[in-house]
Amino acid sequence: MHRTAFVWDDLYLNYSFPGDHPFKSLRESMARKYMEERGFFHVVEVVRPDPPEEDILTEVHSPEYVDFVRAMSELGEGLLDYGDTPAFKGVYESALMRVMGSVTGIRLLARGYDHSVNLGGGLHHAQRSAASGFCVFNDVAIAVKQAEKLLGRVAVVDIDGHHGDGTQALLYEDPKSLKVSLHMYHRGFFPGTGNIDEIGEGEGRGLTVNVPLPPGTGDDAYLYAFDNVVIPALEKFKPDIIVIQEGGDSHMSDPLVGLKLSTRGYLEVIKRIHSFSHNKSTGKILMLGGGGYDYDATARVWTISTAELSGIDPMEVESLHDCCLTSSSAFVMERVREVVKKLRDIHGLG
Ligand SMILES: [Zn+2]
Ligand SMILES: [Zn+2]
């Protein structure tokens, strides 16, 4: 019914930037600990990623960029982009292992699992020939390519607080995948893309759906946008598999993003996708991690979402929840309504 694989390798933990850099693999280890303490792994099977396949990186990255990362990883210093993403010893191997985790997650679905979870994945900013925003290789786009080969039509639902710009760019003309991203959109906020008029090109035209949200968007406005844009877009596209990028930085306590989701809002989003998948698709879901700079909040979000997918009793994770759903100001709600209205029009959603 909800046969779930949890893809994990300890090498993931090496993908953690040094010093006071905000991206830490502590999130993944905390989530794993929360799950262990609650007996998740009696129900959820822990599976190691398939061994490294270096060729898989060039499905979306240029060979020159892959060579560059390998060389910088041996050197162990310097920058992989303009400043956000430093190199360190072994960054190549740990980034590749995270990619293998997402690819393995897809292969497990093709082999009969209903759901797979790879918290090491979700590195959605990486571009064809460049690292960006703490992301070295774009496992999301690589997993989509793998899923298209094995399973058919793929919908990506990216609920990270930042726009999934790398995934969008790498799949912008792809006719077999729907790319949906909900994110904060505000002057000067990284990465600066993700407005409503970015809808895809060529054969992929209409298959990129961006939901830009103002700072202060709470659970109520977020779920309003989800119900009125994302669910109808999924119904229209009819995916065979759904890939969720579940960055934890849309949470209200995240220090880098200004959205206001609670763990209960996150759970509502996952429940909606889960229910859609079983009722109107094949039930197959790959859930990935992503950003998240309040480490505890991110670990709680991931644990609660994994419980939902795998059918674990919600009471087991009740103590990890925030008290209640959050609400948005009237001003924010009005702005979100306007965005939703325009998107329904642009994408012909009723
Ligand atoms: Zn299920
Ligand atoms: Zn993010």
UniProtKB/TrEMBL annotation:
All residue ranges annotated as the Histone deacetylase domain in the record: 21-308
Record GO terms (molecular function): histone deacetylase activity; hydrolase activity
Example GO biological process: acetoin catabolic process
Signal peptide limits: none
Annotated metabolic or biological route of this protein: Ketone degradation; acetoin degradation
InterPro entries with a match to the protein in the record: AcuC (IPR003085), HDAC_I/II (IPR003084), HDACs (IPR000286), His_deacetylse_dom (IPR023801), His_deacetylse_dom_sf (IPR037138), Ureohydrolase_dom_sf (IPR023696)
Keywords: Acetoin catabolism, Hydrolase
Identification of the protein by name: Acetoin utilization protein AcuC
